[in-house]
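Example record

One chain of 135 residues, shown exactly as stored in the release files.
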Amino acid sequence: MNISVNAVLLYSLAGAIALVYVPFLVVGYGRAQIGYDSSAPRAMFDKLPPYAQRATWAHQNAFEALIIYGFAVLSAYVTQVDSMGAMVAAIAFLGARLLYSVFYIANIPLARSLMFAIGSLCNITLFALSVLNLQ
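Predicted structure tokens for this chain:
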């Protein structure tokens, strides 16, 4: 089965959107443990167990990372980047972001930082390939 670079880019963007909500599942579990208060959901943060607080931060960071990744993917898509490097960067980004959340929730800062760096490198790669493809 041959899949185009454009398809990988767009599917990876959809995957990155889905990954935003992976940490939120852990937040939901933490909220269930303490009893969900629908009248003041944000006030519950200080009552959450530490892993659920970290999951909240991972969830928020995933939105921030998605913005940059969205621009990187769309720039590669619009400039018709057609390289194995773009496919690798797109897939590696998804793996790095999934592991970023896992390491954040598990409180392994060095591994979390490494995954952040890999995700950032994937974004830089996609932007660089886009610029090079314009020439």
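Notes: The helical segments are 5-19, 22-34, 50-78, 84-105, 109-134.
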